[in-house]
Amino acid sequence: MLKYTIRRILGMIPMLFLISVVVFFLALAMPGDSLSGEIDPNNTDPEYIERMREKLGYNDPVHEQYIRWITNFAKGDFGTSTKYKIPVSELIAQRLPNTLFLGITSIIITYLFAFAMGMYAGRNPYTKIDNFIGGFNYFMLAIPIYIAGVFAIYIFSFQLGWFPFAGSVDIGASQGTIDWWLSRFYHVLLPATVLGAMGTASYTQFLRNDIINNSQKDYVRTARAKGTPESRIYNHHILRNSVIPLITFLGFDVVTIVNGALITETIFTYPGIGQLFLTSMSTNDYPTLMTLALMFSLLVLIGNLIADLLYGVVDPRIRLE
Q1: What are the φ/ψ torsions at residue 163 (nearest 5 degrees)?
Q2: What one-character DSSP code corresponds to residue 315?
Q3: For site-directed labelling of 72, which of 5, 127, 233, 310 has its Cα 20 to 30 A away?
Q4: 234: number of Cβ within 10 Å
Q5: pLDDT tens, position by position, 30-70
Q6: Which domains are present in the chain?
Q7: pLDDT at position 314 over 70
Q8: Among 193, 197, 189, CA closest to 163
Q9: What is the Cα–Cα distance from 72 to 160, expressed in whole angstroms?
Q10: How confident is the model at residue 73 (pLDDT cuts 50, 70, 90)?
């Protein structure tokens, strides 16, 4: 396991290098540069803009720009945001806790509902409730997350007034107090539920089908023939083996957080790194944009690594060499 982990981590280095090249040249191919948004024909001196481009190295050869950027990135210097005028590291540090809070809450919601519905549907297959759960899941799989988010805001925020439709905490709440944490949870609950519901559908069907499949295995028939109580058969035999593949999805949930945050945070005006990424793209904030793109890629690679390692952790029959 250790050798496999080290080999996978070392294999991520050239992958990150290739991703950094792609990210850099895609940003370079976008129209304009970081100073384009600062140009105002009425108030901006074109000579000043050209001097700033020269100072920032935008006129240097492409390979020199890339080497300077990736070297500074490796040192932890991500540059300064051209929109917010603060270091990108500070900007990400302000937004990252919100995204992590949203992601962790959505994962908890996903697994709670997936286990509850999947276990019930698996133990009671082909019943009316099982058909209802299956229909609900396929309906959720068919709805794009941005459509679900808009309807959730309209129904639960505008019509019912149960949840706020924007922000991450009440302005008047003092940081660190119980009211502040309750306000944060209150603001994150609706976007996390929408994001978690998207994963619940596929996880529920996966768990349900695996429980039905395992209930027909020989070891289950043997346990029933020995007179083992049905509850013990499901909890200690069927469910244990059915949960193993589901646990390995935890690694891929990192990818889900990254992808879901981009859309969910924008729809709910939730100040996280997903919303920051789209804002930096629309305002030509290239230092922030390239840093976040590379960071998202790293998170995806780490998520895939965690998923592979969990196979060997939760199932001793699997040996990673």
Answers
A1: -130, 155
A2: -
A3: 5
A4: 19
A5: 776 666 655 544 555 667 767 777 777 777 788 888 888 88
A6: 92-314 (1.10.3720.10)
A7: no
A8: 189
A9: 50
A10: confident
Locus of tokens 């709670």: 112
Helix axes 249-267, 239-247, angle to 10 degrees: 60
| Amino acid in position 306 | I
How far apart, in whole angstroms, are the C-alpha atoms of residue 230 and residue 219?
Answer: 13
Cβ atoms of 21 and 321 within 8 Å: the answer is no
- Distance from C-alpha of 234 to C-alpha of 137, rounded to nearest angstrom: 23
∠ at Cα 48 (42, 53), nearest 5°? 120
Per-residue model confidence (pLDDT) at position 315: 60
Q: Which residue has the tokens 């500070």?
A: 90
pTM for this prediction: 0.78
Q: 121 to each of 8, 164, 174, 228, 229, how far by Cα in Å?
A: 38, 33, 44, 22, 19
Q: Could you tell me which residue, 174 or 2, shows the higher pLDDT?
A: 174
Write the CB contacts of 145 (distance below 8 Å, at least 6 apart in sequence). 194, 195, 198, 260, 263, 264
What is the distance between the alpha carbons of residues 167 and 169, in angstroms, rounded to a whole number?
A: 6
Task: Pick the closest to residue 254 from 292, 306, 197 (CA basis).
Answer: 306
Residues 28 and 207: their CA atoms lie apart, in Å, by 45
Q: Report DSSP state, residue 238.
A: I
Tokens at residue 155, please? 């129904």
Q: Which amino acid is at 137?
A: N
Q: 125 — alpha (psi -120 to 50), left (phi > 0) or beta?
A: beta
Return all residues near 263 (Cβ < 8 A) that are at least 6 apart.
Answer: 145, 146, 149, 274
Distance of alpha carbon 90 from alpha carbon 198, whole angstroms: 31
Residue range 211-219: mean pLDDT, rounded: 81
Is residue 287 very low, low, confident or very high in pLDDT (cuts 50, 70, 90)?
Answer: confident
Which one is predicted more confidently, 7 or 245? 7
